Amino acid sequence: MSESEKITINLGAVDLGKIDLLVEQGFYSNRTDFIRQSIRQQILVHSTEIKQLTTDKYTVIGVAKFDRHELEGFRDGKRMVDIRLIGTLIIAEDVPLELVEETIQSVKVFGIIKARPDIKNFLQLLRDQS
After folding, report:
1. DSSP one-letter code for 30
2. Residue 83 burial (10 A CB sphere; 0-12, 13-18, 19+)
3. What is the pLDDT along the chain (130 residues), one digit of tens a residue?
4. With contact defined as beta carbons under 8 Å apart, do 52 and 77 qualify?
């Protein structure tokens, strides 16, 4: 079961009446169902903005090294990385390609990428798309 937080909202009588009408007509099982679905819809509407806000941006001059533990942290936190770098980007040898695909959203490197060939090819593709 997922964690949930209880919130309190104030609604005008007309809005509440409209919700009750929709519940009575079977569109929603209850007021809470209506509110949850409405919130989910608004989150979906703003998904682009949410994605931008949850992308960690790295702008580095010098050397940036990402190891397996760090990228797993991004994946577990459901965050992506946007890398902008002047210098050298190093992806540790023990990092699987799937983890890089799940965590690095974009990359722009002015310099050198040091990584296994499969990861380097993937990062080159990302760089070309930027």
Report:
1. S
2. buried
3. 456 778 899 999 999 999 999 999 999 999 999 999 999 999 899 887 776 665 567 677 889 999 999 999 999 998 898 898 888 999 999 999 999 999 999 999 888 999 999 999 999 998 877 6
4. no
Contact in structure between 29 and 55 (CB atoms under 8 Å): no
Task: Determine whether 119 is exposed, middle or buried from the number of CB atoms within 10 Å of its CB (0-12, 13-18, 19+).
Answer: buried
Strands of 80-91's sheet in order across: 55-66, 80-91, 104-114
- Measuring CA to CA, which residue among 117, 65, 55 is closest to residue 87? 65
This prediction's pTM: 0.59
Taking each helix axis from N to C end, the angle separating 13-24 and 31-45, rounded to the nearest 10 degrees, works out to 100
Could you tell me how far CA 103 lies from the centroid of its own chain?
Answer: 9
- Distance from C-alpha of 92 to C-alpha of 129, rounded to nearest angstrom: 23
Backbone angles phi, psi at 21, to 5 degrees: -65, -45
